[in-house]
Design brief:
alpha+beta, 8-stranded antiparallel beta sheet, Cyclophilin, Cyclophilin-like_dom_sf, about 230 residues, peptidyl-prolyl cis-trans isomerase activity, Cyclophilin-type_PPIase_CS, 10 strands, two-stranded antiparallel sheet, isomerase
Length: about 230
């Protein structure tokens, strides 16, 4: 179960030519949670804690599934089995090789793709296989520099962006190639530096860290502004 979108020198290929017109919507990735809102703390062994906001109003089933799996301790002791520099860190597979994982209901469920959420650096999304169904595997975007050339390439794939969204990609970096093909349902609000440290680990030919990066635990907690 891998991300289908990959970058190639001088071009891009994806899971299909899909419209991802982001022109008028208000982008909400970086809106902070309300006081007392549910968030998830991802505790990574030897690295620290990553705090994530979830967007239940945009992706209700995706968030329900993630919260359910967290409360079941499904993710505890699993590894990040795939790390691609300046792209993503990916985990959530009990098999640890990218071929396993299931939703809290035991079967995959349809994607919920919101035009208000983009693949900026720190975005949380579900990885899918060829069936395009969400299960347990997820990734966090560690991002790359985005330029005007990036958006010129994306026009050939039916993906057009407003000046506002382009500017946000220029400022934050990310992976606009993935927009419209995967369910973005959360955003790192604290600990992005930890994700980027993991993004620098040595990996093997299959992009698996040579030294395990382990999710010690995940828990649901409340957001409180400091």
């Amino acid at each position: 179960m891998l991300l289908c979108g990959v970058m190639l020198a001088g071009g891009v290929t994806g899971c299909g030519k899909k419209e991802a017109s982001l022109s008028e919507e208000k982008i909400i990735n970086y809106d902070m949670p309300a006081e007392g809102e549910k968030i998830v703390e991802l505790n990574i062994k030897d690295y620290g804690t990553v705090k994530i906001r979830l967007f239940a109003e945009e992706c209700p089933k995706a968030v329900e599934n993630f919260l359910g799996l967290v409360e079941q301790k499904y993710y505890d002791e699993l590894i990040f089995h795939r790390v691609v520099k300046d792209f993503v860190i990916q985990g959530g597979d009990p098999k640890g090789n990218g071929t396993g994982g299931e939703s809290m209901w035991g079967t995959g469920f349809k994607q919920e793709i919101s035009s208000k959420l983009c693949h900026f650096e720190g975005a949380l999304a579900y990885a899918v296989a060829s069936d395009k169904l969400n299960n347990s595997q997820f990734y966090i975007v560690t991002g790359d520099t985005v330029t005007e050339q990036t958006f010129e390439q994306l026009k050939a794939y039916g993906k057009t962006y407003s000046d506002q969204v382009k500017q946000m990609y220029y400022e934050h970096g990310g992976q606009p190639y993935l927009d419209g093909d995967y369910t973005v349902f959360g955003q790192v609000i604290e600990g992005l530096d930890i994700c980027k440290k993991i993004n620098d680990v040595a990996v093997d030919s299959k992009s698996k860290p040579k030294e395990q990066v382990t999710i010690e635990s995940m828990k649901v907690t409340e957001y409180h502004a400091q």
